[in-house]
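seq/struct pair 1
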Amino acid sequence: MSRIRCIAIDDEPLALEVIQKFASKIPSLDLLGCFQNPLEALEFIQQEPVNLIFLDVQMPDLSGLQLKQHLPEDLSVIFTTAYSEYAIESYNLNAVDYLLKPILFDRFLKAVQKAQKLLQVEMQEKPPTYLFIKSDTRYFKVNYDDILYIEGMRDYIAVHTPYKKILTLMSMTKILEKLPSASFMRVHKSFIINLNHISLVQNNRVLIQEREIPISNTYKENFIKFVEASGI
């Protein structure tokens, strides 16, 4: 499994320093940032791919327990607090673990290992239905089903969805390797299409929404085989 991308949220700077120190000792952890303001952390999560959060329970304005209910369901959380009475409530929110302050490194390591095992199981049982696409300094989470087609533009590619176009520095070959082969096919040196979004095939062209996409001779044979196998 690749490194766990995580963040820490706590209104106490010293508590964040402890987590930062412990995380630096564990090679499988990639601590992306520490936040005292939970709303800033929430904004960060919407922009960057994150697997795990170390989340303080007691914070002003918005508690960790309240924040957990605004997070994606597939985002793992390890609660941290000085008060043991919150343990039951944290487990009711499907937290991975619950760390009592002052946190010892041995206990921190066990919680991380538990999170890692759970993430590995989730990846095996539920293959991803999305990918993160980097554009400039941001990562966009894009569902495979939302990709209409991908257009090659020299050093860049443009990923077209119904609601936006995302430019990223990547080759057509590389992006095709990351996409499920059952749904995506290259039909031209400059185009990869989502087969589920084809509305018409005519005269060496496919229509996806309002866009006509050419089928080149290089890729025509494989595409025709797909059409014939899917036809009646």
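seq/struct pair 2
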Amino acid sequence: MLNSSFIMNFIYRIILILHLAAAIVFLPQPAQAEQLSSVNADELFKRGVYQALIGNYKLAIADFNQVIHLRPDDATAYANDGLARAAIGDSKGAIADFNSALRLDPNLEVAYYNRGYVRFELQDYQGALTDFNRAIAIDPENADAYHCRCLVRHQLGDIRGVAEDLHTTADLYLKAGKLDEYKGLLNVIKDIYSPNNVAI
């Protein structure tokens, strides 16, 4: 049996950190972060990323909101604000931010991915499926998106889709050298096809 809630939360936390980390040009030390100017959007963005990485999500939101005020066409600021809002349970605010990010940049894969996560948590499985499909269309090598789509398909009763996504995810993890994730998925696949399990 797939533990969807546990796996989705685990994957989301990892993706939150990875995507925020990918946005960093430099990572300020705590003392530097406090001294950053409040008028420079780039510095505010970096400080917001730093605050999110250390778990200060409300401070991160405050910084990203200032960036959005200074640069209202910055899709990544909206996306990161959405990530921070999702982390504190503000699903409505997170979805609004992801929607804004996607209006500005319709190819921003991380916004589809994380909006899909929030929709999954809200049990909007069709909406989540649509978002993970879009994330995969933009980045077909994103193993985590296949993994999450697998969980959505599980909720929708799409047994064949679950099996396909599990196998694709395992292949992509192996290709990327993520052996622990690969071995974990192999165990899930074996469990699914064991004589004791006739359904997922």
